[in-house]
Design brief:
13 helices; alpha+beta; globular; seven-stranded mixed beta sheet; four-stranded mixed beta sheet
Length: 503
């Protein structure tokens, strides 16, 4: 059998195939060149500084966590704890000694090596006498720390702590070097996949890809966090394309309009943010539990969610996230009841009410919520003077100085009910019953038993009406439809860019 070839046809076929191959290659190259490797992230608050181990502001971790700084363990987008700079660990049978095997080849952004001596320094600094760490209590149970070998760290606790590995995943437990720790506030040096470039005060913070990163390199070459404090300006920046993503979009009244625009993705998730009307438990009328209970009966939580958050938020009755399996639903403890509120005030010696101040930080939930709460409390004779503060003022006057009557703030730290055991904490609560429950929790490893103790703790602070528990802060994320890898939920204060890329 003979096979005949038509040379012209064959030549045309070959040329067509070659042309097709070249076209595909050129298209792929062009696409690769067109895919962006930078991102502009909009944030509401400018951090007071950039050292996550030296301040309470969530705005610090929202820029630095997982991007610039890393810890021995890591809390991921699902709220689960896993290895990070410690690749593995062993725990002694008595639950007191943790032996961490550190990763090899890890360097800080200045080129110096990270080893067990650095880890020991970071933890000793966090728990030391002169520590400015906002979560110093997390490290109080550590008895000794030993750098056994460059990649072997031994930590011994004074008593078992079932939450120890979780605590090490907080931004407050980030690993820092002794040589650069003091300058991390303005020139942060970590081990993360992004390096600090510059901070233009009042405008932006720029990061760039760390080419010497020990782990999987970031896809992005550059990330800029733009500070945009006004909700109206947020919307304008998004629509103009000046901002690619707002992980926490404040102008939530515009979400339906944005969701209808194919240029954007809208994702409403949950956070660890218990939003509360905090009360100074040692000041004036608020030192009386009956007054605090009266206030709790006078606040219309759902109206605040609807009016301040445009319906985005879950009512809570205690300081605990509703998505956690240990959560106890106590929202019915203080139903809206103005007559009950007035009766409790009269019983406490304030039949005509009293005057007080409410100091409000910049977030929308605080400024809008404060006006609604002032209106609510006026109905029972409590006259509030609204005092708006900038974030640095709030940290100085309220959080550190305890100079306030009322304030509104969202506590976004994960599993932070233990703050009610801190006698010097800003709302100044003191309860032997609560302390006893937390002491048992510290020595309990069984998960179900821990959940039961956490339930007891929730009931105690609600019965004592330490604060008015308003709602769990929703996370309304808005970003360009081609941007992938943004976190929908916020199990920890973070805008983790390690998995973010453009398609």
């Amino acid at each position: 059998m003979k096979i005949r070839f038509n040379r012209r046809v064959m030549l045309g076929t070959v040329l067509a195939a070659a042309f097709s191959t070249v076209t595909v290659a050129l298209t792929a190259t062009a696409h690769a060149q067109l895919v962006r490797t930078d991102v502009n992230i909009g944030v509401r608050l400018e951090p007071p500084h950039l050292d996550p181990t030296g301040g309470a502001a969530a705005a610090i971790d929202e820029i630095t966590y997982a991007n610039i700084f890393e810890g021995l363990t890591r809390i991921d987008r699902n709220g689960e704890v896993g290895p990070w700079l410690a690749e593995s660990w062993e725990v002694s049978e008595d639950g007191l000694t943790y032996t961490f095997r550190l990763r090899e080849g890890v360097t800080f952004h200045d080129g110096t090596a990270f080893d067990a001596a650095d880890a020991k320094f970071a933890l000793d600094r966090a728990r030391g006498e002169f520590s400015t760490n906002a979560q110093k209590q997390l490290f109080a149970g550590i008895d000794t720390i030993e750098a056994v070998e460059p990649t072997l760290l031994k930590v011994t606790l004074a008593k078992p702590n079932g939450a120890f590995l979780f605590n090490l995943g907080w931004g407050d437990a980030a690993m820092v070097a002794e040589e650069t720790a003091v300058s991390n506030t303005s020139k942060p040096i970590g081990t993360g996949p992004f390096k600090f470039v510059q901070w233009v005060q009042g405008d932006r913070i720029e990061l760039s890809k760390n080419p010497e990163y020990w782990g999987e390199p970031a896809t992005l070459d550059k990330a800029t966090f733009k500070i945009i404090g006004d909700p109206a300006a947020e919307l304008a920046a998004l629509m103009a394309g000046d901002i690619d993503a707002f992980p926490n979009f404040q102008a939530t009244e515009n979400l339906p309009m944005i969701a209808a625009d194919p240029r954007f993705t809208v994702a409403v998730g949950s956070t660890e943010g218990e939003t509360i009307l905090a009360m100074n438990n040692k000041k004036g009328p608020l030192a009386d539990v009956r007054v605090r209970q009266a206030i709790s009966h006078a606040v219309d939580r759902q109206a605040i969610i609807d009016g301040a958050m445009f319906g985005n938020g879950t009512p809570i009755g205690t300081h605990f996230a509703p998505h956690h399996p240990a959560y106890v639903d106590l929202t019915g403890t203080y139903p809206l009841d103005l007559d009950k509120a007035r009766a409790l005030l009269a019983e406490a010696g304030y039949p005509d009410g009293f005057k007080a101040t409410i100091k409000l930080p910049p977030p929308t939930y605080a400024r809008r919520g404060g006006e609604l709460i002032a209106s609510d409390l006026k109905k029972i004779g409590v006259e509030l003077e609204i005092v708006p503060l900038e974030w640095a003022q709030w940290l100085s006057e309220v959080f550190k100085g305890k100079d306030f009557d009322f304030t509104i703030v969202s506590h976004t730290e994960p599993m932070d009910i233990n703050i009610y055991g801190r006698k010097d904490y800003y709302f100044q609560y003191d309860s032997a019953a609560f302390d006893e429950v937390m002491a048992r929790l510290d020595t309990t490893a069984d998960q179900q038993a821990r959940y039961e103790l956490l339930g007891e703790a929730q009931r105690i602070i609600t019965e004592d009406a330490v604060n008015v528990y308003l709602f769990q802060l929703a996370k309304a994320g808005v970003w360009a439809s081609g941007l992938k890898g943004m976190w929908v939920n916020s199990p920890i204060q973070a805008n983790d860019l390690t998995g973010v890329s453009w398609e």
